[in-house]
Amino acid sequence: MTQRPPEAGSTFSGTLLVAGTCIGAGMLALPLVTGAGGFGPAMLANLLCWLFVLCTGLLLLEVNLWMDEGAHILSMTKRFLGRIGEVVGGGVFLFLYYCLMIAYLAGGGPLWGQMLEGFSGLAVHPLVALGSFATVFAFILFLGTKSIDRINWLLMAGLVLSYLLMLGVGSSEVNLSLLFGENSWALGAIALPTFFSAFGYHNIIPSITLYLHGDVKKLRRAIIIGSSVPFLVYSFWLALVMGTVPKEALEYAYLMGMPVSGVLSQFSEGVWMARLSVFFSFFALVTSLLGVSLSMVDFLGDGLGIKRREGLRRLGLVLLVFVPPGLLALNNPRIFFDALAYAGGFGEAVLNGLLPVLMVWIGRYKHGLDSAFRLPGGKPMLLFLLACTLGVIGLEIYHLLLR
């Protein structure tokens, strides 16, 4: 009896995968890194980054449709950019995900400490908070994919519920004069690399292409709608925080490496807003942490040739994922923002900007490939996206030189 192939997934499921991959810890930094520039530049950066990642996501889809079923970033870069492209793609992937792990551990430790203090009524040392936070989630990662999946469903439910409650409770506290005050467009541009980190979803495109059986209509809708959801979520989030907290306080919190939940609770009139902001920040961060750490275990296991990732072998991979970024997270309270900026300015810009543009250019104009879907605009569009990518990398280099 011939086995029937699995039924293709729905557009709705693909949309949720794209949106869920974007929304996470990166959004916690957005109001703080844009605080000095003001709400207007923050919204412009939000809009521009959404449009950019929408275009480059569709470019990566075009490349993926040229490949055999199940192809991922390494096989795509190897085919179109050769061995050097494969090495660069793998190296940037590793750099990006380690930067994200540093950011998540640096941001998660203080939030975990706040929650422990709230439940116990006792002061928690930052080292204890970070160590216990990393230990708990390293243990969850060690348990395996099934346990992570079940726990992640609970965490995602907490994320959605706390976000909606926070918007409902906090909307009455928004001061329009804070939103529409003086803006600094030059300072707003510095936030673009962090927005890149907050909009990263390209790593899920090969998976949803497989999941939706290469259905171009479903894939296009999933990417367009799925990337639009984070744009709306971030817009409301920016309005809530920047309309509640004065610009100077946001700038000070960014310079001191304070979590957004802490500064939001200081200027919120209601006790519920303060508590909700802590829980929302925690859920946003740990849902991202679990996804990134699971990807790193698989990536490192594949790179090191470890096929059976169980027992002591899995423990070793988990320690490789958590220990190096944990040690770096201890040294600098601002490393949460710095790591996200490095991830966006270099990692996301290269992996999700530069590489898709180059692969599509070579595929279209060197190999003469065609597919059922093609991003409009031809060479001018590709050159424009390339210029935008190089501009973001240049901004991050400039930012580094100013320090």
Task: Describe the fold and architecture.
The chain is mainly α and 403 residues long. The protein has one domain: Up-down Bundle (Amino acid/polyamine transporter I). It is built from 17 helices and no strands. It has helices at 11-22, 26-33, 39-66, 73-120, 126-143, 145-170, 176-179, 185-189, 192-198, 205-211, 216-242, 247-256, 260-267, 271-303, 311-331, 335-365, 378-402. Helix 2 crosses helix 12 (247-256). The longest helix is centred in the first third of the chain and has 48 residues, at 73-120. It is globular, with a radius of gyration of 21 Å.
Q: Note the main sheet.
A: none
Low-confidence stretches: 1-5
Principal-axes geometry comes out as globular
Give the CATH architecture: Up-down Bundle
In total, the number of strands is: 0
| Beginning-to-end CA distance, first to last residue | 67 Å
CATH topology: Amino acid/polyamine transporter I
Superfamily (CATH H level) name = Amino acid/polyamine transporter I
Structural class: mainly alpha
Our count of helices gives: 17
Secondary-structure element order, as H and E? Answer: HHHHHHHHHHHHHHHHH
Q: Which bin fits the share of residues in helices?
A: over 70%
When the domains are counted, the total is 1
Tell me the strand percentage band. under 5%
Radius of gyration: 21 Å
* Nearest-integer average pLDDT: 86
CATH class, anyone? Answer: Mainly Alpha
